[in-house]
Amino acid sequence: MAMATRVMSQSTPLSLACSQRNAPSRGSGTSKRSVKMMCTQLQVSGSRMQGFLGLRGNNVLDTLGRSRQSFGGKVRQAMNVPKGKGSRGVVKAMFERFTEKAIKVIMLAQEEARRLGHNFVGTEQILLGLIGEGTGIAAKVLKSMGINLKDARVEVEKIIGRGSGFVAVEIPFTPRAKRVLELSLEEARQLGHNYIGSEHLLLGLLREGEGVAARVLENLGADPSNIRTQVIRMVGENNEVTANVGGGSGSNKMPTLEEYGTNLTKLAEEGKLDPVVGRQPQIERVVQILGRRTKNNPCLIGEPGVGKTAIAEGLAQRIASGDVPETIEGKKVITLDMGLLVAGTKYRGEFEERLKKLMEEIKQSDEIILFIDEVHTLIGAGAAEGAIDAANILKPALARGELQCIGATTLDEYRKHIEKDPALERRFQPVKVPEPTVDETIQILKGLRERYEIHHKLRYTDESLVAAAQLSYQYISDRFLPDKAIDLIDEAGSRVRLRHAQVPEEARELEKELRQITKEKNEAVRGQDFEKAGTLRDREIELRAEVSAIQAKGKEMSKAESETGEEGPMVTESDIQHIVSSWTGIPVEKVSTDESDRLLKMEETLHKRVIGQDEAVKAISRAIRRARVGLKNPNRPIASFIFSGPTGVGKSELAKALAAYYFGSEEAMIRLDMSEFMERHTVSKLIGSPPGYVGYTEGGQLTEAVRRRPYTVVLFDEIEKAHPDVFNMMLQILEDGRLTDSKGRTVDFKNTLLIMTSNVGSSVIEKGGRRIGFDLDYDEKDSSYNRIKSLVTEELKQYFRPEFLNRLDEMIVFRQLTKLEVKEIADILLQEVFERLKKKEIELQVTERFRERVVDEGYNPSYGARPLRRAIMRLLEDSMAEKMLAREIKEGDSVIVDVDSEGKVTVLNGGSGTPTTSLEEQEDSLPVA
User: What residue ranges are annotated as transmembrane (predicted)?
Assistant: First the structure.
C-alpha cells in the first residue's frame, strides 16, 4: 500500500534547510508518523537525489530546521543509505553549499512556475528567479544588460505559453534544469568556491546553452559570452556571502561587512557626503577616544537633528583627506545597518552567526571603525527565546578594545536603554553634542548651499539662509537646529522650483483649448466632415504657433537672466517666511496692504459683534498690531489680559469675536472652563498625568492643544474658580512664554494671546452701576468708570497673588450694559434668527413694538445680555416653532411678528410673501437680513 501511495513533493524553502541544518528544533513530531520517502532523479557526483517526500507531501528539506537530526542523517534515513556510503558527499555537494540568495532563486523559480500554471521548473523559470532575486551578482549583471523581469516573463509566455492552471503540490525539475544545477556546482569548483551562489547558477545556465532560457536571452538581445565575462569580473570584485562550509572562506575580503554596512570613507573619497561645517571639538573628542587602548568606543549623545550622524561623516571625510592622527590613519568608517542585519533571521542562531562573522571580519581587518546609528537598537536586537541580544554579544569585544565602535543616540533613548545596563554603559564614552547656535547654523547652511543649489537648480540668497536659521529658531520650537533650518531651505527650494517650472497661465489656457480643438478635429475626421476638420486644423496650427511663441519668450527671458548673472530662480527671504507660515500657521510674512487695512480697522470690526466695552476692544487690537509687525517681546506671549466684570457683558464673546475675525474661526480658540480644575488633582489635566497614572500617554488638555495650534487665543474662562496651583503653573507661561508638559517636552506659548475672564469685583460694579449709566455725560461717565476700575483692581489684588497679577499685561474692567447697548445686542441676536429661518426659505420681519418688548423683558443690569437671549427664545422662537409644526408657516412664507394692543405677541403670515398688515406696521418693521 505504501508503495502504491502517490507522493507529491512541494516546492520547498531550501533556505531554511541549508542555513539551519544543525539548529535544534522547537519540537519535531516525526516520531509519531512514519515518513515514507522517495527521490526524484538528480545526478550529482554519481548519485541521484532531488526532493524527499513525506506522506503529507512535505519535502524533507522543509522539515530539516524542525528536526533534531542532522542534515546527513535525515537524508540517509530518507534514502535508506547506510552511513559512510556516500550520502554525506551527495548532500554537501549540492544543498549545503547553496547561499541564501541561490536558495531564494530556486524558490522564486518555483513561484514563477506556479504563476504561469506549469507543473515543472525548467531553465526559463530559473532565469526568471535569477532576475527576480534582485540583489545578487546574477541579477545585477542581467539588469546591466537591460534584461528586466517584465520583458523576460513576456518572452517566456510567448515561447511556452501558460499552463492549464492546475499545479501539483510538488513541482519537479526538468532534466535540463537538473543539468543546470549540476553545472553550477562544477562552475563553483572551477572558480575555487566552496559555495553555490546566484552567479554560479547563471554560469551553469549559460553553459547548458540550450532550452527556453537560452532562447529568451537571445530574443532579449543578450550575448551569453558577454554575460559570462561580466559575471566572472564581478565575482572577482564583489563576492557574495559564502556558505562557509568545509572550512576556509571563499574570499579574502569582508563579504559580511560589505553586505550589512556602508563605507562612509569611500563615500567621502567620492565626494558623495555633504560637507560638515563646525563640530571640531566633538570630532577631536571622538578621535581622542578612538585612540585609547581599551574601551575606545565614543557614543554621540544629543537631541534629534543636532548633527550626530554628521560628526561620523565628518570623521570619515577627515580620514579620506588624511587630516587625522596616525592612530586612525588609513582606517575605514563603516556604518552598520542593524535592520538589514536582523532582517530574514527567522530561526535561533542565524542572527548570532551573522554578528559573529561580522566581528571576526572586523578583528582580522584591524582597520575598521564601526559606526552604529541609533545604538540603543543593539539592546534586544536578535533576541529570541533562550538567545542573547546583540549588545551582550558585543560587550566583550567593546571592553577589550578589539572593536572600535562609534555609537549615536538621543538623550531620551540613552537614558531609557543604555543607562539601565551599566555593563554596556561603561563600555561607551559619552560625547555630548549640543544644539548649534543660530550663528553656527547660518555657517552650516552656507556650507550646504551649493549642494541644494545643484539639486534644485536655483540659487539661495544670503538673506534666505539667515531667515531660515532665525525663523526656525523662533517659531519651530519642537525641533532642533540645524535640522529644522535645513528642512526649511530644502522645502523652499522645492517650492520655488515648482513655481518656475509651471507653464504660464496664458500658455496653459491655450494648451487646454488646443487639446479640445484636436479632439473635435479627430471626431470630424471620423465623421467624414472634412470641411469642419480643415477649419479646426487651421485653428490648431494657429494655437500651436502661439504656444511656441510663449515658450520661446520664456526661454529668452531665462537666457537674459543667465547673461546678467542670475543663474535660474532665486530663493528669497519671503519664500522662507511662506514655508514657516505653512508649517506653523503663524503669519511671519510681511504685512500686505489688505492686512494692514484689516488691522487698522480692527476695533470697528470687533464692535459689530461686541457692543460697548471700548477699553477691552482697544487693548486687544493694540496687542495684535504689536505682534503682527514684530514689535512684541519675542520671549513672551502676544499679550495676557484678565477681563473682570459682571456676567453677560461680553467677556467670553470678545475672545470668540477675536478668534473668528483674526485667527480664522471660533474653533481657532482654545477654551478651558476653569471650573473643571477646582480640585488639586485635576490640575494635572492641563499638562498631562505624571508617569504611572492613567492617561499618561495622552498629554495635557492645554499643552497638546497649543502644540497643535501654536498661534491662537487661549481663553481661561472664570479663572477665579481654578485651584491655586493653576496660578503657580501659569507663572512661567506669562513670563517666559513656555510650559513643560508631563513628558518633559517644552510647549511654546510665545505666539498665543492669553485671555482670562473673572467675575471678581462684579458686586462692586453692580453697586456703582447707577453712576456709570448712559444718562451721564462723557467726563462723568469716564471718571466713574476709573473709580470703579480702581475698586475692582483692589479686589483682584486681594483674590490673586501679586506675582500672578504683576505678570499680566493689563487688567480690564468691563462696564455694565446700558439699555441702549442691550437694544443693539437684541438686533444682533434677532439677525441670527433671521439667518436661520432664511436657510429654511422663510422670510421673517419684526416690528418696532416687538423689539421694544424684547428689550424690556431682556434688560437686567445684573445679568447682562443673557436674559435677552432667553426673552427672544420665549417670545419669538417658541411661537415660530409651534406654527411651523402645525404647518401654519411653511417654506416660501413671509412672516411678521408684532405685539397687539393687549401686549400679546402675534405672528402674521402673508402666505405667498405679502404680509397681511397695515402700511404703518410695515413701515415700523425691520428689514430682513
Answer: none
Closest to 280 measured CA to CA, from 433, 451, 438, 411: 433
Burial 319-355 (b: 16+ CB within 10 A, else e): bbeeebeeebeebbbbbbebeebbeebebbbbbbebb
Best-predicted range by mean pLDDT among 566-575, 670-679, 687-696, 753-762?
Answer: 670-679
Please check whether residue 129 is in contact with residue 177, taking contact to mean a CB–CB distance below 8 angstroms: no
Set of cell numbers at residue 205: 545556465
In the chain, % of residues over pLDDT 70: 78
Looking at residue 167, its pLDDT comes to: 62
- CA 891 to each of CA 481, 834, 847: distance values in angstroms, whole numbers, following the listed order: 61, 14, 21
pLDDT value at 305 more than 80: yes
SS3 for 714-768 is: EEEECHHHCCHHHHHHHHHHHHHCEEECCCCCEEECCCEEEEEEECCCHHHHHHC
Give me the pLDDT at residue 47, please.
Answer: 33
Q: What is the mean pLDDT of the chain?
A: 75
Q: Which residues of 889-927 are buried (b: 16+ CB within 10 A; e: fewer)?
A: beeebbbbbbbeeeeebebebeeeeebebeeebeebbbe
Give the list of residues 6+ apart from residue 543 with CB closer than 8 angstroms, or none.
510, 513, 514, 517
Continuous H helices in 291-378: 308-321, 338-342, 350-365
DSSP secondary structure letter of residue 196? B
CB atoms within 10 A of CB 881: 12
Q: Are 576 and 467 in contact (CB under 8 A)?
A: yes
What is the pLDDT at residue 489? 92
CB atoms within 10 A of CB 543: 18
Neighbours of 404 (CB within 10 A): 24
For 180, what's the count of Cα atoms within 13 Å in the CB-facing half-sphere?
Answer: 31
The pLDDT tens digits for 175-207 are 888 888 888 888 888 877 777 888 888 888 888
Q: Element (H or E) spanning 810, and its range?
A: strand 810-813
304 vs 410: CA distance, rounded Å: 6
Which amino acid, 321? S
Q: Which H helix or E strand runs over 894?
A: strand 894-899
Domains of the chain: 89-235 (1.10.1780.10), 253-433 (3.40.50.300), 456-579 (no CATH), 590-768+783-811 (3.40.50.300), 817-907 (1.10.8.60)
Amino acid at 96: E
Residues 617, 511 contacting (CB under 8 angstroms): no
CA atoms of 784 and 813, how far apart (whole Å): 12
Q: 428 near 370, Cβ under 8 Å? A: no
Give phi and psi for 669, each to the nearest 5.
-90, 135
What's the DSSP call for residue 618?
Answer: H
Structure confidence at residue 29 as a pLDDT band (50, 70, 90): very low
pTM: 0.60
Q: For residue 604, report the phi and psi dihedrals to the nearest 5 degrees.
A: -60, -40
In tens, the pLDDT along 630-642 reads: 787 888 888 888 8
C-alpha to C-alpha distance for 889 and 891, rounded to whole angstroms: 7
- Here the cell at position 799 is 483674590
Four-CA torsion 133, 267, 469, 433, nearest 10 degrees:
100
| pLDDT tens column, 155-181 | 777 777 776 666 666 777 888 888 888
**Which of 348-357, 426-435, 489-498, 733-742 shows the lowest per-residue confidence on average (mean pLDDT)?**
348-357
Query: Beta strands 47-48 and 43-44: pairing type?
Result: antiparallel
> Residue 246, by phi and psi: left (phi above 0), alpha (psi -120 to 50) or beta?
left
- 468 pLDDT band, cuts 50/70/90, is very high
